[in-house]
Design a protein that fits this description.
This protein is an alpha/beta fold and about 240 residues long. Helices cover about 40% and strands about 15% of the residues. The chain is globular, with a radius of gyration of 18 Å. The two termini are about 35 Å apart.
């Protein structure tokens, strides 16, 4: 329904889509995907972009969402991995809960491998705003600091079962839109880039939670990915400015 509305109602939105030549997407693939996060519109853009190019995009959802009418049932029917998570305070009181959460994540991921999938991870963990950027003192111009733990866990569980780690970059050159603005047709342009991220052999099989050396190396690897992504966003923005001049 979303895609039909975008194609038939939101005709004023211009899309600029570029895909890395080395990235061979297909509807039977198994993919992990990272993406920058600026607005609720991001997920709609992701679904629109991926519908005819890759399996349905899914992401980790909280188990509690299953009790929301329609939404929770949709997540369950569509096979979104649902997790019960414990707070940092609960884990501090009972450290064994951390491993219970990891086992929940493992079970949720294993449910995906029986079918094609695209598992999305917003590494920033929250939507980008200038205020959050300043508060974090982020070293990136267009991004918040990445949280590597979720990606490390997914790669640990699914690494040898995925066909590619892909990175989606979304740019709104005319300003980050709200969800209502998007559906009112007030977003003139959206640029999307999809690139393949090579996974070094050492990444697979590491213990992010308990191996400090591996964790530091993994975080450096993710920082490098994010540095390249920040440069890509700047380049995309400059290209769009030049094209409209």
């Amino acid at each position: 329904v979303n895609n039909w509305l975008i194609d038939n109602v939101l005709k004023n939105t211009k899309w600029q889509i570029s895909i890395d030549e080395s990235l061979d997407l297909n509807m039977q693939g198994r993919y992990l995907m990272t993406c920058n996060h600026q607005s609720w519109v991001d997920t709609t853009v992701n679904q629109y972009f991926g519908l005819t190019r890759m399996p349905l995009t899914r992401f980790f959802t909280k188990w509690e969402l299953i009790f929301i009418p329609f939404v929770g049932q949709a997540f369950k029917i569509l096979g979104f991995p649902m997790m019960k998570r414990h707070s940092k305070e609960q884990i501090a009181k009972n450290p064994s809960l951390k491993y219970r959460d990891m086992e929940e994540a493992r079970k949720a991921c294993e449910q995906l491998v029986s079918q094609p999938f695209t598992l999305l991870n917003y590494l920033e963990g929250t939507r980008f705003t200038p205020e959050k950027h300043e508060q974090q003192k982020s070293p990136y111009k267009h991004l918040l600091k990445p949280k590597a733990g979720g990606l490390a866990l997914a790669l640990n569980i699914l690494g040898d079962k995925i066909d590619a780690l892909v990175d989606m970059t979304i740019v709104y050159p005319d300003g980050v839109p709200g969800y209502g603005e998007f559906w009112l047709g007030e977003v003139p342009r959206i640029a999307v880039n999809l690139r393949k991220i090579d996974i070094p052999d050492w990444v697979l099989g590491g213990n992010y939670e308990d191996d400090a050396d591996y964790r530091a190396r993994f975080q450096q690897w993710v920082d490098q990915i994010w540095t390249e992504k920040d440069q890509l966003i700047e380049q995309m923005r400059q290209n769009l400015i030049s094209a409209s001049a």
